[in-house]
Amino acid sequence: MAPRYRVGLMMRTEGDVFVVEDVIHGPAKDAGLQPGDRIVKVNGDPPSEADSAAVFGTPKPIALLVVRDGKEQTFTVTPAKVE
C-alpha cells in the first residue's frame, strides 16, 4: 500500500477558490491557516486547475496564496505522512 499524506484541512469550493472550513491539528494549523481563509492559488495555479489529490496527497510542500481579511498572505504547508 502506497503511503498517504494529509494537510489537516477541511475546505469547500466556492466559485474559483477553496474556502477553509476547519483546520485540524497538523501541517495546515502549524503553517497558520485558519477557518474562513480563502485559498486563491495552489502552487501558483487557481484552485479550479489544481489536481487536489495530486497536490495535497504527496509529501511535497504546497504554496498557498490566501486572502484573509482582504489581504493576501502566502503559506507553505508540507503534508504529513499518515501512520
Structure overview:
- The chain is mostly beta strands.
- It has two helices and seven strands.
- The strands form two sheets. It has a five-stranded antiparallel β-sheet.
- Strand 5 and strand 6 form a beta hairpin.
- The longest helix is centred in the middle third of the chain and has 5 residues.
- The protein starts with a strand and ends with a strand.
How would you describe this structure in keywords?
five-stranded antiparallel beta sheet, mainly beta, 83 residues, single chain, 2 helices, globular, two-stranded antiparallel sheet
Helix content: 10-25%
- The class by helix and strand makeup works out as mainly beta
Q: What is the straight-line distance between the termini?
A: 12 Å
Strand order of the largest sheet: 2-3-4-5-6
Strand content: 35-45%
Radius of gyration equals 12 Å
Shape: globular
Largest sheet: 5 strands, antiparallel
Number of helices: 2
Helix/strand order, N-terminal first: EEEHEHEEE
Please count the beta strands (DSSP E, at least 2 residues each): 7
Low-confidence sequence ranges: none
